[in-house]
Amino acid sequence: MSPVKPTLKTIAEISGLAVPTVSRALNDAPDIGARTKILVRKIADELGYVPNRAGVRLRTGRTNVISLVLSTEHDMMNHTARLISAIAGEMQGTSFHMNITPYFPSDDPMKPIRYIVETRSADAVIMNQILPEDPRVAYLRERNFPFVTHGRTRWADSHPYFDFDNTAFGRIGVEKLVMRGRRNIVMISPPRNQNYAQNMIDGGTGAARAAGCSMRVMQGTTSDNRNEDIQLGVARHLAEFPETDGIVCSATAVAMAAVATLESLQHRLGEDVDVIAKEAVPFLTLFRPQMLTVHEDVARAGQFLAQAAIQAVRHPEKPPLQGLDVPTG
């Protein structure tokens, strides 16, 4: 005989609360006190209570799901894995759950967004790799569907987002290399059609101009390339510009590929060439102590994105939550 599945009524009987109060506590209703919510969730966890999603959707019109839409091409070693963990952690203890909707580089990035909106398989979308005039954002705004971007569009004033100040990173990266005496710098940027690539390049170019040194953007190679392709790109650049003495890398994996190439060509890291990169966890200086790094607080980004998505669902009338992580170097 299978065990009886716990229900809202079961939790109500144990807690001494009314069923509607239990339901509202589990849905994090603002009019329910924190102690009541803690009590109800504790009992629900102990019982192994799982809400009937079909019933929730019938009663509220919601799925209690927030979908994180990610390209399969992204850096899973460092940035994206930490982002996923932070978003999921922030949703813990709420009525919301996260799912991940992947899409492949060969796919139309609109495809997963249209699917979610048309099937109503989630209440909100979190997405990254943002373009200045991102068609996904335009589509979601037109349909009044809740969303949050990890990055900014040209319409950022009117929608929720969290972003890392890549203009500041580009500037700090070049300034740190200049302080080490570097005068011939190359940046391995994200694809230039993405907003944060443009910001990063602008910051680096401005700092190089102010210092009176050279900064090129590596041609034919971006942070989205495979590691072996990045290594080939670095080797080609060094052959064409042997005077290169500083490299700004937009991701941890890019920096590791650049260092691997330098060492294979007998360049001494920290002596012949310096490399600086942003990273979400303190890894690169363990890999090579001579590395220069700038911290990106991806955990904070994930927490903020989750909060912004939940507010966009629950309180669409409120001003959108917007945040910016400004590195200090």
From TrEMBL:
The UniProt keyword set, sorted, is: DNA-binding, Transcription, Transcription regulation
Q: Which domain of life is it from?
A: Bacteria
InterPro entries documented for this protein: HTH_LacI, Lambda_DNA-bd_dom_sf, Peripla_BP/Lac1_sug-bd_dom, Peripla_BP_I
Protein name in UniProt: HTH-type transcriptional regulator RafR
Locate the HTH lacI-type domain: which residues?
Answer: 6-60
Stored PANTHER family:
HTH-TYPE TRANSCRIPTIONAL REGULATOR GALS (PTHR30146:SF109), LACI-RELATED TRANSCRIPTIONAL REPRESSOR (PTHR30146)
- Listed SMART domains: HTH_LACI
Annotated gene: rafR_4
User: Any idea which GO molecular function terms this record carries?
Assistant: DNA-binding transcription factor activity; transcription cis-regulatory region binding
User: Per the database entry, which stretches of residues form a coiled coil?
Assistant: none
Q: Which species does this protein come from?
A: Roseisalinus antarcticus
Question: Record's PROSITE patterns?
Answer: HTH_LACI_2 (PS50932)
